[in-house]
């Protein structure tokens, strides 16, 4: 394995792009823990979550987990792609059709994560990459089991709220409230934001499974109303 570039440094870990020779892929992402004096061990949490979600194709696959020679926890995964922020810069103004394609990819992944009993927990444009023509989440250090929350539905809806924020950043260059987005957006993007805003106000008196079923039913109706062109991603 050889480090080819430094991707970013966070409070708890440093991330590299590396070339590997023991797997069928050429490039991989190496994350190394750099801060041990913390109550939140994001690299350790990410490893646990990736194992729990390992049967999902939209989730990074673990190639290696263990420790460096200096005793730091390390994680090697296979998801390498172009950051969404860079993809936007390369492509200039992004039309609504393309934005909706991005949201559909991310929405599909979130639904699968939630159905497995987890939230992603950090839906943001910085955590999205373009890979093989589709868009994916990376960095699962803040993903958490729904069992740890008193009101799981509100945690789930925060993930979908993050999708709305991504729409605002791509379309208008900034985070915006539901009301601002609804006022400025048109078509299917506006319909999606209205749907999420309505879902955020559902009274959570039943188990979260009931809300996931209700949410999925509305999403299916939403898909059925879409032009076939949009669904042919």
From TrEMBL:
Classification via SUPFAM superfamilies: Protein kinase-like (PK-like)
GO MF annotations, alphabetized: ATP binding; protein kinase activity
Record-linked SMART domains: S_TKc
Domain of life according to the entry: Eukaryota
Coiled-coil residue windows: none
Location of the Protein kinase domain: 1-233
Pfam families on file: Pkinase
Name used for this protein in its record: Protein kinase domain-containing protein
């Amino acid at each position: 394995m050889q480090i080819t570039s430094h991707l970013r440094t966070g409070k708890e870990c440093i991330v590299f792009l590396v070339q590997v020779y023991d797997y069928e892929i050429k490039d991989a992402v190496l994350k190394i823990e750099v801060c041990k004096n913390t109550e939140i061990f994001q690299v350790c949490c990410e490893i646990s979550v990736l194992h729990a979600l390992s049967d999902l194709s939209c989730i990074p696959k673990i190639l290696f987990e263990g420790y460096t020679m200096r005793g730091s926890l390390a994680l090697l995964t296979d998801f390498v792609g172009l950051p969404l922020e860079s993809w936007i810069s390369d492509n200039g103004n992004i039309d609504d059709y393309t934005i909706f394609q991005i949201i559909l990819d991310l929405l599909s992944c979130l639904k699968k994560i939630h159905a497995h009993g987890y939230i992603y927990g950090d839906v943001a444009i910085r955590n999205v990459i373009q890979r093989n023509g589709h868009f994916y989440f990376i960095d699962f250090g803040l993903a958490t089991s729904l069992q740890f929350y008193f009101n799981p539905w509100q945690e789930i809806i925060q993930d979908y709220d993050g999708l709305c924020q991504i729409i605002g950043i791509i379309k208008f260059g900034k985070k915006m409230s539901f009301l601002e987005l609804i006022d400025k957006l048109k078509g299917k993007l506006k319909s999606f934001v209205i749907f999420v805003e309505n879902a955020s106000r559902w009274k959570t008196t039943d188990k979260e499974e009931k809300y996931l079923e209700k949410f999925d039913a509305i999403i299916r109706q939403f898909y059925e109303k879409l032009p076939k062109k949009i669904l042919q991603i």
